[in-house]
Amino acid sequence: MRILVTGAAGFIGAALSERLLARGDTVLGFDNLNSYYDPTLKAARLARLAPQANFCFVKGDLADRAAVERVFVEFAPQRVAHLGAQAGVRYSRENPHAYVDSNLVGFINILEGCRHGGIEHLVYASSSSVYGANRKLPFSVRDAVDHPVSLYAATKKANELMAHTYSHLYGLPTIGLRFFTVYGPWGRPDMSPFLFVSRILKGEPIEVFNHGHHSRDFTYIDDIIEGVVRTLDTIPAPDPTFDALAPNPDTSNAPYRIYNIGNHQPVTLARYIEIIEECTGRKAEKILLPLQPGDVPDTHADVAELMHDTGYAPSTPLEVGIARFVAWYRNYYRI
Questions:
Q1: Distances in Å between the alpha carbon of 13 and those of 141, 211, 258?
Q2: Which of 65, 72, 50 is CA-nearest to residue 2?
Q3: E strands along the chain, which residues?
Q4: Phi, psi for residue 105 in degrees, rounded to 5
Q5: 152 catalytically annotated
Q6: DSSP 30-50
Q7: pTM above 0.85, yes or no
Q8: Are 9 and 43 in contact (CB under 8 A)?
Q9: pLDDT of residue 70
Q10: Distance separating alpha carbons of residues 58 and 203, to the nearest angstrom
Q11: Of residues 99, 124, 152, 259, which has the active-site annotation?
Q12: Spatial strand order in the sheet of 2-6
């Protein structure tokens, strides 16, 4: 297939592009290569994709309507994996306009491109952050998500609502994936797995928020990519059991679905740090801090719907995934 992957220089986008190319798809990657985190890491990810004949790349901004329109017209994708966005919960407090430009304006440009381009299927990145102030665990896609605690989360919830509108009005099949803390080789430097490994290997102290008491549903990149590919290959249809008098938030009488994509096995941050210490052979110096505004205390993905509909089954133990990440980090940074 011809597949447009936005955010192709990002952690998940680059890994997805590599997987799609390996199975014979033609991929156009789109990314603005911004400096939210080290652009040289993004360039290194792209360098792994560039030699492949079925890959091409366009540097552009999602908020640039004309640039997005050109991609749809000139590349004519059949399906779209929209993974590009302004990421980060804490950064949304510092630069809120970046989230409006990329996550809201950018998303409407993608939706319009899909609508006018006759796209077969759109899979887009939502986030576990949409659960916000919810404390009922595990998080289920059938739970209401009306209390975001960060602007980032609010934009992701808005994406789900916008996608449903286009599924309803124009019959555009859409699937939103609520990602739960993704980690692994080529990961994001702004996320705790990368920060912890980097600082521990350098002998620097790590900042441990909420005194290490919160838990996260850490999910290895290979398991995430398996789930994304399965959803790209599964075009949703209107749910025949949808009841408008008692509607489930994750389905619709339009071709629309929302799924959690996680490991379904959360661990405390304290235990996560212990595993990193075991894999690096070094003890961490911890600076214990309170929970940060915008963060949620716990995440735990109920992935029953994704498993039922696509056969998704995460299989990478945390100890294995962290060991692979530490090995990659040592090799990439020569530490």
A1: 23, 32, 19
A2: 72
A3: 2-6, 26-31, 55-59, 79-82, 121-127, 174-179, 182-183, 206-209, 215-216, 219-220, 256-261, 267-268, 286-289
A4: -65, -45
A5: yes
A6: EE---SSS-HHHHHHHHHHHT
A7: yes
A8: yes
A9: 98
A10: 39
A11: 152
A12: 55-59, 26-31, 2-6, 79-82, 121-127, 174-179, 256-261
Taking the alpha carbons of 281, 286, 291, 292 in that order, is the dihedral positive or negative? negative
Amino acid at 7: G
CA 50 to chain centre: 22
CB 80 within 8 A of CB 123: yes
Neighbours of 300 (CB within 10 A): 21
Q: Which residues contact residue 238 at a Cβ distance below 8 angstroms, ignoring those fewer than 6 apart?
A: 252, 253, 254, 255
Question: What is the phi-psi region of residue 134: left when phi exceeds 0, alpha when psi lies from -120 to 50, beta otherwise?
Answer: beta
- Which helix (H) or strand (E) segment holds residue 194: the answer is helix 192-201
Q: Tens place of pLDDT for every residue, the chain, 335 residues?
A: 999 999 999 999 999 999 999 999 999 999 999 999 999 999 999 999 999 999 999 999 999 999 999 999 999 999 999 999 999 888 899 999 999 999 999 999 999 999 999 999 999 999 999 999 888 999 999 999 999 999 999 999 999 999 999 999 999 999 999 999 999 999 999 998 899 999 999 999 999 988 888 899 999 999 999 999 999 999 999 999 999 999 999 999 999 999 999 999 999 999 999 999 999 999 999 999 998 887 778 899 999 999 999 999 999 999 999 999 999 999 999 98
What angle do helix axes 318-333 and 269-280 make, rounded to 10 degrees?
A: 50
The single-letter DSSP state of residue 101 is I
CA 14/CA 45 separation, integer angstroms: 6
